[in-house]
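Team,

Forwarding the record for the chain on the shared tracking sheet. I've put the sequence and predicted structure together so nobody has to dig through attachments.
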Amino acid sequence: MTRSHANTDKTSQAWFATTRWSVVLSAQDKKSSQCRQALDGLCRTYWYPLYAFVRRQGYPADQAADFTQGFFARCLEKDWLESVDQSKGRFRNFLLAAIKHYMSNERARERAKKRGGGKQIFSLDIATAETRYRIEPETTTTPEQLYERQWALALLDTVLKDLQQQYLDEGKAEMFDLLKPCLIGQTGSLPTTELARKLQCTEGSVRVMVHRLKKRYRELLRQHIADTVAGPEDVEAEMQHLRTILSGS
């Protein structure tokens, strides 16, 4: 990782902790100085689940990109946030309902050129998105199910990046890179003896490192989930829902 990229990641971590519900709520305050920056980060993190949802509705790639861009343009205009109430439920449900409402309105208006006021909020990597979309299940997944699965994957990816940044800040980037396969269940990861050799420690120490890595990951995951639900009492239910989504059951 280059120094400039690391600095960018540190900046993003600073505001990402206040995205999702807390930023949506703060965005109701027109004087919020961090609102635009945090919402921009929200767009970049969660655009693909929404893009996949629109594509599964039957829209071609370019039109799905227009809808996604336009939706986030409307988000950044803030006018649609004025009546948002966190107590109404989970943030992923809020976003899904919001884009459905947006698409319903847009279908009654002029198409691509007018969508989002003709502004490009951020660059969508359509080629990569289409590569990902082509491997999605086609016959057994509804648009809503596809959205929820991609939301879950985006959430896990964000948690993993946050954890990586923590280790980088602590000067333990190499440790994280070596232990990460143990965390995400990759096959062919190095055996404990080889990890111990590379990390210049005992096998017992490696097992402790892996345990701590997994613990920190779980803590970060719960923290991120807590940011997407109405209250702490909903965290466990959302954790279970996340496991159900990822298991495909």
